[in-house]
Amino acid sequence: FFQAFGPLLRPNVCVLLDVGTKPGHNSIYHLWKAFDINKNVAGACGEIRAMAGKYGSNLLNPLVAS
Asked: Catalyses which reaction (predicted)?
């Protein structure tokens, strides 16, 4: 994918998110801004938390609980 489309699109920043990840309201902006401000930044990582739901009801789902 990157070898095929990268040379054509020439992106400044490429963001990969795991399937099912729900970024916060400003997460993508802050990630992009970190790359934009400092050209020496080559990667970034963050925290992923399970959305437990009201009273932890989503934790009954084994995929969320794990």
From this structure: [(1->4)-N-acetyl-beta-D-glucosaminyl](n) + UDP-N-acetyl-alpha-D-glucosamine = [(1->4)-N-acetyl-beta-D-glucosaminyl](n+1) + UDP + H(+)
